[in-house]
Design goal:
Number of domains: 1
CATH class: Alpha Beta
Low-confidence stretches: none
Mean pLDDT: 93
Strand order of the largest sheet: 1-3-2
Helix content: 40-55%
CATH topology: Alpha-Beta Plaits
Strand content: 15-25%
Largest sheet: 3 strands, antiparallel
Radius of gyration: 12 Å
Number of helices: 3
Length: 91
């Protein structure tokens, strides 16, 4: 079923490229909406895989907006997102 999720720390096309590439193998094609705030991703996903999606997004530095993260986790996510964005810009 196609579902849309709000993600944080997504700022540009580099971030979008990283998300599309990193999520494709496990979750298929991903659409990234860079026009909305907060940013949104849309993909075809079953409910039982959402927890795996959350973990993957956190590992890239782009947690869901509904994730409750500590201050340190938020700082870590932002740092990871800068690296993920840079990688996405190089690809």
């Amino acid at each position: 079923m196609k579902q849309t999720f709000e993600v944080v720390n997504v700022k540009c096309g580099g971030c979008a490229n990283t998300l599309k590439k990193a999520l494709k193998e496990d979750f298929g094609e991903v659409e990234v909406d860079l026009e909305s705030m907060p940013r949104k991703i849309t993909l075809d996903i079953e409910d039982e895989k959402i927890e795996n999606l959350k973990l993957k997004l956190r590992s890239l530095g782009y947690p869901l907006s509904t994730d409750e993260l500590s201050s340190m986790q938020n700082i870590g996510a932002k740092a990871k997102s800068f690296v993920s964005c840079a990688i996405g810009k190089m690809d």
